[in-house]
Amino acid sequence: IIPSLLLSANVKKNYNLNVELPDDATTTVGTALLKEKFNMTTSHFIIVDDSIPASKLVRMENEISNVEGVSSMLAYDMFVGTSIPDSIVPDDVIDIVKQNGRQVMLVNSIYESSTDKCNEQVEKIENIVQKYTGSEHYGYVTGEGALYKDLIETTKVDFAVTSLISIIAVFIVIAIVFKSISIPFILIIAIEVAIWINQGISTLFGTAIPFIAPTVISCIQLGATVDYAILLTSRFKEELARGAGRTAAMRKAANEAIRSVFQSAMLFFFATFGVYLVCSISIVKSLCAMLARGSLISALVIVLFVTPILLLCEKLISKTTKGWGTHDDKPEPEPVATAAVKKNIDEYEFEEETSFTFTDDGEDE
After folding, report:
1. Is 47 exposed, middle or buried (0-12, 13-18, 19+ CB in 10 A)?
2. Average pLDDT, whole number, for the chain?
3. What's 179's DSSP letter?
């Protein structure tokens, strides 16, 4: 549990959707050309009030230009200067950078969007803009880099909340189905272990997963694994109710349930793995690969983890589950050798005067 949790927590997530596109896509080719020709990878747009004094804007622009990783900056006041009035500048030039009381500035960065360096750069630029605009003027940083920064901050909270809600919902369903307090804990831990192992494998191989993968994998694998876990637990409970001992009941339940588990898991595997083989979009390939891998991991976790845990915790389950009852292990009867029985019968000698007579009324003499 602990290693899988640590590996899953350290998995790298990729928030840049351009990276997930094929290499020959128009967006990918265009971005590569911009980086090659102009040393530009990401663009930030700064929108401020046009009422801010030009001298103040020039100081802000110079400070932004000196931020680490900024390759170039395009701003109206940097080219026109502070002494030339707007009235003598052609309107078609003014309209490019100034409209409706706002003006826009372009900042080019050498950092790829969604990376830590790019996010730090956006944060520094935002601080500089707020420093010169203050509360009395409008100032805003947008663009690809700022977009992905906001996306990272938003999804961290949203995905954590949705995952928690899913776990609580499944916990309540299991608790109601089995009328138990302990069984939901056992099955939820098993399900989460399967999900953690699936994500942890990506950490071991050093591959980054799409940022939506943890939520998608968590929901789908959670739904599949809980079915497997409920099936095994239900069969275990049924065998105990028939009077079998703990070990015999689990052996019988496992033999019958695991076949269905692996059949379902293999169907899930081939359905998702087939998409992985033919799809050229990286984000879809990554999701399908993790779903295919997760189907097998879930089945193995049910066999290798849930089965022994349910058996070991059966006494605890019986005390925390309504209608479960107490079931101690019973010694299994030793198999009777047919040959030995036949030999004993053959060696038995009847007395010569012994005779048996049967009548219609069922009485013997």
Report:
1. middle
2. 85
3. T
